[in-house]
Design goal:
With 191 residues, this protein is an alpha/beta fold. The chain has one domain (4-189): Rossmann fold (3-Layer(aba) Sandwich), CATH 3.40.50. It is 34% helix and 27% strand. It has helices at residues 21-35, 60-63, 85-97, 122-131, 156-164, 176-189, and strands at residues 4-11, 40-47, 51-59, 104-111, 134-141, 147-148, 151-152, 168-173. The protein has a 6-stranded mixed β-sheet with strand order 3-2-1-4-5-8, sandwiched between helices. A hairpin with a 2-residue loop joins strand 6 and strand 7. The longest helix is centred in the N-terminal third of the chain and has 15 residues, at 21-35. The radius of gyration is 15 Å and the shape is globular. It starts with a strand and ends with a helix.
C-alpha cells in the first residue's frame, strides 16, 4: 500500500453524549492500532462550538496515541447551538490539498452531529473534497438511534459526502463489533 495522508476529525462530546466518551477514546485507539505499520501521516481536528487542531502532521499510529486523553466533555455544550462540522471539514481539506499529490488522501470523521452554524455550505465541502481527490469516511458514534424509522436524523450529509468521494459512512453507535467491522472496511476501501 502506498503512503497515505489521513485526517481524523471528531466532534466534541456534548453533555448529552457523555455515555460514549470512553467509546470515542476507544475509536481513536482502534484507528491508530489498525493503521500501525502503514506509512500514514495524519492530523486531528476537533469540532463543536469551535474548530481546534489537536495534533498536526505526524505518523498516524503514534500521533493518535496522544489524543484519547484529550477527548473530554464539551463544557460549553448547551450554551451554544453551534456545531462547526463544515468549518472543520474545510480546514482539514485545505491541509490535505497541500499533501503530496501522489499519495492517497483520506478523511475520517468521528461524531454524530449535523452541522449547525458557521458560514460554509455543504456544497462547498463536497466540491472541495472531490477536487482534492480526498476519500471521506464517517464513523457515527452515539448512544442513541441515528435514524428515526426510515429517516436519518444524524449524519445525513456525512453519508452523502462519503458516497460522493468513494468512501463510506458507518453507523457504529457504541458497538465495538460495529467499530471493528467499519475500520476493517475502511482499510479495504482506501484507494
Amino acid at each position: 500500500m502506498e503512503p497515505q495522508h489521513c485526517m481524523l476529525c471528531w466532534s466534541w462530546v456534548s453533555a448529552d453524549q457523555k455515555k460514549v466518551i470512553e467509546f470515542q477514546r476507544e475509536v481513536v485507539n482502534s484507528i491508530a492500532d489498525r493503521f500501525s505499520g502503514i506509512a500514514t501521516d495524519g492530523f486531528v481536528i476537533r469540532y463543536g462550538n469551535e474548530v481546534e487542531t489537536l495534533q498536526d502532521w505526524s505518523p498516524l499510529d503514534t500521533g493518535l496515541k496522544k489524543i484519547p486523553a484529550r477527548i473530554e466533555l464539551d463544557a460549553e455544550s448547551g450554551k451554544s447551538q453551534r456545531t462547526l462540522l463544515y468549518e472543520a471539514l474545510n480546514v482539514a481539506l485545505q491541509k490535505l490539498e497541500t499533501a503530496t499529490s501522489g499519495n492517497s488522501k483520506i478523511l475520517i470523521v468521528v461524531g454524530e452531529r449535523n452541522n449547525a452554524g458557521g458560514g460554509i455550505k455543504y456544497s462547498q465541502i463536497a466540491k472541495r473534497a472531490k477536487t482534492a481527490h480526498v476519500q471521506c469516511f464517517a464513523l457515527l458514534v452515539a448512544d442513541h438511534n441515528l435514524m428515526g424509522g426510515r429517516v436519518r436524523h444524524f449524519g445525513f450529509y456525512l453519508y452523502d459526502l462519503a458516497s460522493a468521494t468513494k468512501g463510506k459512512a458507518y453507523d457504529v453507535g457504541n458497538s465495538r463489533k460495529n467499530l471493528d467491522k467499519a475500520i476493517r472496511d475502511v482499510l479495504k476501501r482506501v484507494r
